[in-house]
Amino acid sequence: MQIHATDEVEGVPLLEIRALFRQAGLNGFLSARSIRRRLLLTKSKTDRLIAALRRMGLLEPIGDRREASSAEDEWQLSKEGVRLRGATARQTAAARNR
């Protein structure tokens, strides 16, 4: 998987999300609190980001908690989230020329 250095999700650079996913380690577990602290987001911004990551298929509730709806729950990387964690970043021509 390859991502562009300028890509964003809910205003958060995808490179920062990739770093967050890498920090989650091999088990791929994240909590809303860890996301909020790592990315320095407000609670509402964190909630929107988690919702977007779920819609994109990058995060899912842990194990048998498939009904998780609160952003305070813990999450795990989906197969696509694991792919993003290992993705390489490609700079655009504009970014290289800065």
Defining traits:
three-stranded antiparallel β-sheet; 98 residues; alpha+beta; globular; 5 helices; two-stranded parallel ribbon; 7 strands; Arc Repressor Mutant, subunit A; disordered C terminus
SSE order and pairing:
Blueprint: E1 2-4, E2 8-9, E3 12-13, H1 14-23, E4 29-31, H2 32-39, H3 43-55, E5 59-61, E6 74-77, H4 79-85, E7 88-90, H5 93-96
Strand and helix order: EEEHEHHEEHEH
Largest sheet: 3 strands, antiparallel
Radius of gyration equals: 14 Å
The shape is globular
State the CATH class: Mainly Alpha
User: What fraction of residues sit in β-strands?
Assistant: 15-25%
Uncertain segments = 92-98
Strand order in space, largest sheet:
4-6-5
Give the termini distance in whole angstroms. Answer: 25 Å
Overall mean pLDDT stands at 84
Describe this structure in words.
This protein is α+β, with helices and mostly antiparallel strands and about 100 residues long. The chain has one domain: Arc Repressor Mutant, subunit A. Helices cover about 45% and strands about 20% of the residues. The protein has five helices and seven strands. The protein has helices at about 15-25, 30-40, 45-55, 80-85, 95; strands at about 1-5, 10, 10-15, 30, 60, 75, 90. Strands 4-6-5 form a three-stranded antiparallel beta sheet. Helix 1 crosses helix 4. The protein starts with a strand and ends with a helix. Residues about 90-98 have low confidence and may be disordered.
